Amino acid sequence: MDSYSYVAQSAFPLVWILVPAAGAFARTRHTRSPQRALDIWQRWWAIGAFGCGSLWMTVAFLAFPDTMATAIGFDRTPFMFEIAFANLGLAVMGFRAASASARERITIGLGGGMFLWGAAAGHLYQWFANGDHAPGNTGGVLVNDLLIPAVMIILAVRSRQLAVTPRSTMKTGT
Questions:
Q1: What is the DSSP letter of 56?
Q2: pTM, whole model, 2 decimals?
Q3: pLDDT in tens, 56-89
Q4: Which residues contact 41 (CB under 8 A, 6 or more apart)?
Q5: Which of 52, 60, 103, 135 has the fewest C-beta atoms lying within 10 Å of its C-beta?
Q6: Taking a C-beta distance cutoff of 8 angstroms, is the pair 15, 143 a contact?
Q7: Phi and psi (nearest 5°) for 140?
Q8: Residues 6+ apart with CB under 8 A from 122
Q9: What CA–CA distance (Å, rounded) separates 146 from 132?
């Protein structure tokens, strides 16, 4: 595999972080309310990063199992079918998070994190223990596995904090 192809394949998963971040940033440029901006960011993140990113992995593992096996540096196994449906579960949770409460988003982030952080640990193990530098084992996939649930949780926690912080309605200095 040439170096350009390796970099492109390794970096591709970052689309599921960069597109929602760019969309949320563009949508909140002129938003004055921190709560409204945070809500926009949570929706973009839930649908784009968590939902669409996981749905893409579902389709990729089901429709292109040989390509995915090569990308992750393994032989094709029946386990890949299970990974596809685990990702489908994450996609459903991500789409649900778009209209969920902050508390539900924290739970969704934690639930997704258990799978994705475990996957990240597996990728790191394969990288260091077995020298698996396949583009689907290192690079963008690691960033996604770590950040997608973490950002979901952080945004939801901040949303809860803003919701309980009383806003002053009194004017200072009479």
A1: H
A2: 0.89
A3: 999 999 999 999 999 999 999 999 999 999 999 9
A4: 24, 28, 155
A5: 103
A6: no
A7: -60, -35
A8: none
A9: 18
